[in-house]
Design goal:
One of its GO terms (biological process) is centriole replication. Helix content is 98%, strand content 0%. The protein has 169 residues and is mostly helical.
Length: 169
């Protein structure tokens, strides 16, 4: 009996192990069933939302195209800005060169003016000296003229006396 009991116990343990394997497989199948349901629900949602997804995809493509056009426009504007910067730089360089040329010309003209002022001052000084010399010479000539006139007068007086004396002789 004990042998039968042991045999029954072994058989029961065997059935218990078998039962556990079946339960484990059922749990696995249940887990797979839940995953399949989730996947099915997700697919149904995607199918239901497929047209909004398509719309969103089209909007995304449109925005992407718009962004590409904007990037191209921005690149074009950047190129134009660089051209304008180059033109402004060249104009500034030209303006600076012109300013330097004008400064040099002004400096040269100022130097020339200074030289002319010195020349004028020298001429004025010489003119002052000449004027004094002329005044002195004029005074001398006036004295000589006065002496000449006095001598002429004396000569006439002497001549007249001479003529008077000749007549008397």
């Amino acid at each position: 009996m004990e042998a039968g009991f042991s045999e029954m116990r072994n058989e029961l343990q065997s059935w218990d192990a078998f039962w556990r394997r079946i339960q484990l497989e059922c749990q696995q199948l249940h887990t797979q069933l839940l995953k399949t349901k989730e996947y099915k629900d997700m697919l149904e949602m995607q199918i239901k939302h497929q047209s909004p997804c398509v719309q969103l995809t089209e909007q995304l493509e449109n925005k992407t195209t718009g962004l590409l056009l904007l990037a191209q426009s921005q690149e074009h504007q950047r190129e134009e800005l660089n051209k304008i910067r180059n033109i402004v730089y060249q104009e500034e360089q030209s303006h600076c060169s012109e300013q330097e040329r004008m400064k040099t010309e002004i400096s040269d003209l100022t130097e020339e003016l200074h030289q002319k002022e010195i020349t004028i001052a020298t001429i004025m000084e010489k003119a002052g000296l000449l004027e004094r010399q002329l005044k002195m010479e004029l005074e001398i000539k006036d004295k000589l003229l006065a002496q000449q006139q006095l001598l002429d007068f004396q000569y006439k007086v002497i001549q007249s006396e001479n003529t008077h004396l000749k007549e008397m002789v």
